[in-house]
Every structure is written in C-alpha cells, then in structure tokens.
Specification:
- By secondary structure, the chain is mainly α.
- The chain has two domains: 66 residues; 89 residues, no CATH class.
- The protein is 75% helix and 0% strand.
- Helix 3 crosses helix 5 and helix 3 runs antiparallel to helix 6.
- It is globular.
C-alpha cells in the first residue's frame, strides 16, 4: 500500500469515527437546546460539537493501539468496560478543568473555581456530558471489539444481508452458526 493510499484510508477512518461521535454529541446538543427552550435560552454549539467529535475520534483511534495488560485473555466485555472507564475518566477530568478555567475570573483563579464547581450548576452540565460521552464510548468500544473479531466490514455485510437469513424459524441453527465463530474460553 502506497503512502497516498494509507493517508486516504486513515482520513476515511478518522472521518467515519468523527461522524459517529458527531452524531452522539450533536444529539446531546439538540437535547440541551430542547430543554433550555423552556426557559427561553438558546445555545449554539455546532462548532464545539464538530471539534469535540474530531478530538475524541482521533484520541480513541490512537488509544485503540495501546493494549491494556490485565484484559489479555479475558472476556471481551472486560476490555470494553475498562477502556470505557479509562476514556471516561479522561473526559471527566477535561470537562472539570474546562469549567474551572472558564470560571477562573469569577472566582479569582482556577483553584477557587475548581472548589466552587462542585456546589454550582456547572457540575450538572459536566455530569450530563459525561453520561452522554459514556454511551458514545461504550458503544464505540463494543464496535471496536466486534470489528477486531469479525473484521472491518462485518457491519456492512450484516446490514446488506436479507433479514430472513438472520431470523429463521430454527433459531438454534443460527445460534450454532454464531457460536462456531466465537473462540472457546
């Protein structure tokens, strides 16, 4: 594969992953807008959603290549949960720092803003964002495990195959087909 082909493939992966996170973060922004309209407050955050999606996408794509030693030879769900938790801790720290830096002038410094953050309304904003990002990261990590086990194009193959192939009257045959592809522990 030439450098140009590798570059095109990398850009494609980053854009698709960014699109995934953009849909999650965009949904959060829409929900916030709908809730705040009751109070006649309008927010516009499309640029923040786009930048956030690009940053998170690139971060998780890089972190996918870092192995987690104690999850080796363990059930895949452990890998999913540990990665999700570790990524989420990073997101939470970044959100707390972001809100503290935003409020530094109001409280006379980042340290004081950090102390006051826990009792103010901003903490609820942080929790809402963290919960939404949890969903995005959790399902991304599940997808990553499925993709690693069954191959890059499994989702496309699955979505293009006729439904009757998936829901036959004899479901035990389907389960048998699936279990043959899953390694025994």
């Amino acid at each position: 594969m030439s450098f140009k082909q590798k570059l095109i493939e990398e850009v494609k992966i980053v854009l698709l992953t960014s699109l995934y996170f953009f849909l999650w973060f965009g949904s959060l922004m829409v929900i916030k807008n709908l809730l705040l309209r009751e109070y006649h407050i309008e927010i516009v955050g499309v640029s923040i959603v786009i930048i956030g999606a690009l940053i998170v996408a690139k971060a998780v794509l890089i972190l996918e290549y870092i192995p987690i030693p104690f999850t080796k030879n363990k059930p895949a769900i452990l890998e999913v949960l540990v990665r999700t938790f570790l990524y989420l801790m990073g997101v939470f720290v970044i959100l707390v720092l972001e809100k503290s830096i935003e409020a530094r002038n109001e409280y006379g410094g980042v340290g004081e803003a950090l102390k006051n953050l826990w009792s103010g309304a901003d903490i609820y904003h942080i929790w809402v964002n963290t919960i939404c990002v949890f969903g995005a990261l959790f399902f991304y990590n599940i997808w990553s495990v499925i993709k690693g086990h069954f191959g890059e194009r499994i989702f496309i193959k699955l979505m293009r195959s006729p439904m009757e192939d998936h829901f036959q009257a004899d479901s035990s045959q389907n389960m048998e087909d699936v279990t043959h592809t899953i390694p025994k522990s």
